[in-house]
Write a structure and sequence with these properties.
There is one protein chain. About 45% of the residues lie in helices and about 20% in strands. With about 400 residues, the chain is an alpha+beta fold. The strands form two sheets. A six-stranded mixed sheet has the order 1-2-6-3-5-4, sandwiched between helices. A hairpin with a 4-residue loop joins strand 9 and strand 10. Helix 1 crosses helix 7, helix 9 crosses helix 15 and helix 10 packs antiparallel against helix 11. The longest helix is centred in the first third of the chain and has 20 residues.
């Protein structure tokens, strides 16, 4: 196994995969995201992510980005439902400069009032942008139809929730929800792991604050939203999926590779190539620690939605047509995609982090073995089981 894994005295979990190329991808991820928010403060995790780049006691916003970019690096972050991650990719000789910057923003962000209000405006524009792109907004609608509030509200929040947040409240919330015991540090590339761990132990002190237990309530419903000015309808089919670490999660990946993933999948061939009902057909399996759901998106004509919906349901029900040769092809596709993806160190960095969040990072290196264990009967059984309950969302021309 290529992975080195350590648990530091301050509680930080460190994951390291060494590579020969003189490049390093590095992230510090905190086990806190949208899942932990109440309905009144939905969007606070995402807002915090933005604020951590607005300036520290010793660096301006421009300093933070320039110190990475002038060395040829990339600096970014993202907020998920169960985690928020801050990361960079740099030439390996600049690793500790990048670590200095992430450490600074995590420990010394000023939460300046003027910058807070400016960033609030930015996020309100971001909310409008996502709403106005139906291909993007449909993903928020399907979550609303799969889960009760507050989880059913998108990670970014709403105009009302974000507008109501105050600087002092967000600052205090950050201090109470960011703690090294909840950090996962992931490093892919050239690095001295001993020196990295020494740095992390000397710069972060545990506050012994643990994340609360949360419960997400599932539901199944369907919705249709009419909008003026659209020419195309956007349809999404969604089902609750097996959790990470369950055998059925691997089985679903194989089912997806056969059913809806890629231009050779059964639904792509049936909906687009045979019937010409759509240009875009894509599937997605979204899984974190507390939830898992599977979706199929189709961009089609408004009048074609009933037919598309029926074809998707039939695709699950007609799983008995899947052969051993189909199973072999689906597995080869998944294993090949994993190998291609692993070329990019940022992909591996994020996959290791999410696996450590949900199960354990070591599972990344047994992926091929786990996929190859899936049987044809297991795929057929899961498809019939999953189709019993589902949700749909549609955004259509008015």
């Amino acid at each position: 196994m290529q992975l080195k894994k350590r648990r530091l005295k301050n509680g930080i979990t460190v994951l390291f995969e060494k590579r020969d190329l003189p490049v390093v991808s590095f992230s510090i991820s905190n086990r806190f995201g949208g899942s932990y928010e109440t309905e009144k403060i939905k969007g606070i995790a995402h807002f915090t992510e933005h604020l951590l780049f607005t300036g520290t006691k010793s660096r301006t916003h421009e300093d933070i980005s320039r110190e990475i970019e002038k060395r040829g690096g990339i600096l970014n972050a993202f907020t998920a439902n169960d985690i928020t991650s801050y990361w960079f990719k740099l030439p390996a000789e600049h690793l500790f400069k990048g670590m200095d910057i992430l450490t600074d923003i995590l420990k010394n962000t000023t939460f300046d009032e003027k910058k807070f209000e400016k960033e609030k405006k930015v996020i309100l524009e971001e909310i409008k942008m996502y709403h106005d792109i139906p291909q993007r907004h449909i993903y928020e609608k399907i979550i609303e139809n799969l889960y009760e509030k507050p989880f059913g509200i998108g990670i970014i929040g709403t105009k009302e929730t974000v507008s109501s947040l105050t600087k002092d409240f967000v600052s205090d919330y950050f201090k109470s929800h960011y703690n090294p015991e909840n950090y996962i540090v992931t490093i892919i590339g050239q690095a001295d792991i001993d020196k990295v761990c020494e740095y992390l132990e000397s710069n972060f002190e545990s506050t012994n604050k643990k994340m609360p237990e949360i419960k997400i309530e599932k539901l199944n419903k369907e919705s249709t939203e009419e909008r003026p000015g659209l020419d195309q309808a956007h349809f999404m089919f969604g089902v609750h999926a097996p959790m990470a670490g369950e055998k059925e999660h691997d089985i679903l990946e194989v089912l997806d590779a056969y059913l809806a993933n890629g231009m050779s999948s059964r639904l792509f061939l049936e909906i687009r190539e045979k019937r010409g009902l759509a240009y875009a057909i894509r599937s997605s399996l979204e899984t974190e620690k507390h939830y898992s759901y599977y979706t199929i998106y189709v961009g089609t004509a408004k009048e074609s939605i009933p037919e598309v919906r029926s074809l998707i349901i039939e695709g699950f029900k007609n799983i008995d047509k899947m052969s051993q040769e189909d199973l072999k092809e689906a597995k080869e596709r998944l294993i090949g995609l994993k190998k291609v993806s692993s070329e990019e160190s940022v992909n591996v960095m994020n996959e290791l982090m999410f696996l450590e969040l949900t199960t354990k990072a070591e599972n990344y290196y047994t992926y091929e073995e786990d996929i190859n264990k899936v049987t044809l009967e297991e795929v057929k059984s899961l498809a019939k089981k999953m189709i019993k309950k589902y949700s749909t969302a549609a955004i259509v021309p008015k």
